[in-house]
Structure formats: structure tokens, C-alpha cells
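Hi R.,

Here's the input for the adenosine-5'-diphosphate complex you asked about:
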Amino acid sequence: MTKPLIGLYPGTFDPITMGHADIIKRAVKLVDELIIGVAKHSGKDPLFNLEERKALVEATIDDMGLEARANVRVVPFEGLLMKYAEDIRADIIIRGLRAFSDFEYEFQMVGMNSAMNDEIETVFLMADARYQSIASKLVKQIATLGGPFEHFVPDPVVEPLRRKLKA
Ligand code: ADP
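And here is the predicted structure with adenosine-5'-diphosphate in place:
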């Protein structure tokens, strides 16, 4: 039997947005198993803790009604991305690409990661044009300022984000 193709989509997901969800929808078509790796921290100070971020990603995937849901797992991880990718025997790392701003950082990451392991390819996907400008950081800013953020996040995120900002 050939080994199933495993994809790892890592991120902070603080919180998951329509942009992330769109990348997940596309990624499931590329691999046999998709592992969504929720990073404990990546030099950022997350609004939602790790458990909350993981739960919101799971709720979003259930809400999306993906046909391939059985092949999608949400797993928290900590430490070096490439090490984690090796541990779970990932074949590809999936990242979303927005505008030029992402490019520079992602370009460097691929360079550094491939120096550590040149077998695991990084694959970039672009979200639908409607979602390309969405960033968790801006969603949080808009929500904090009382602006309409609801269209930028999946339904299961709306109330938890409201509650979190009131707390
Ligand atoms: P990280 O801290 O790893 O950048 P994020 O949760 O911010 O984590 O993003 C995870 C991945 O999803 C990154 O590859 C990022 O570029 C991608 N991404 C985030 N928002 C969008 C979007 N609106 N369109 C496409 N890709 C996105």
C-alpha cells in the first residue's frame, strides 16, 4: 500500500478567519490527510489560548461540512515546525499566501526550512479574492473598535470573539 500523502497546515489561528477556512477547503483536495497544526506561540501574544484556538478551528471545520472531514485533524504543536512536520511524517507543508507582505517572510522560511529538510516541500495556496485581505490581527482590531467583523470570520468564531473582547 502506498503511504497516504500527509499535509501539514500550520498557523497561529488567533482566531481562524474566512481566509484560513478557504485555504483549508483547498488543501483537503491536495492530500489524503490534512493536519492543521495550531502553534502554541510564535513570538506572538495570542488573544485566544491554545485550547480555544484549537476548538474554534474544529468548530469551523465541522461547520464547513467538508466531505473529507474524517481526514482532517486539528493538533496543537509547539517548537520547531520542521521537526514537528518530520514527527508526523508530513510530505508537504501548506501555507497561505496573501500579498507581498507574506511573500518576504515565507520566502525566508522556505529557505531556512529546506536547509533543515529538503524532502518536505512547502506548497502555497491563495484564498479566494474575497478573503485575501483578511488577517486575524486586523479582525481583532476591527472587533475591538466595535466595527463589523462578522463577515471576516466563520460563524462559530463570532460569539467567542465578542465574549473575549468583553472579558
Ligand atoms: P502564522 O503565525 O504562522 O503566520 P497565521 O494564523 O497568521 O499563522 O496564518 C497561518 C497561515 O495562513 C499563513 O500561511 C498565512 O499566510 C495564511 N493566511 C492567513 N490569512 C490568510 C488569508 N486571508 N488568505 C490566505 N492565506 C492566509
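One thing worth noting: The pocket of adenosine-5'-diphosphate is lined by residues 10-13, 17, 19-20, 23, 42, 95-96, 98, 102, 127, 131-132, 134-136 (CB under 6 Å).

Cheers,
M.
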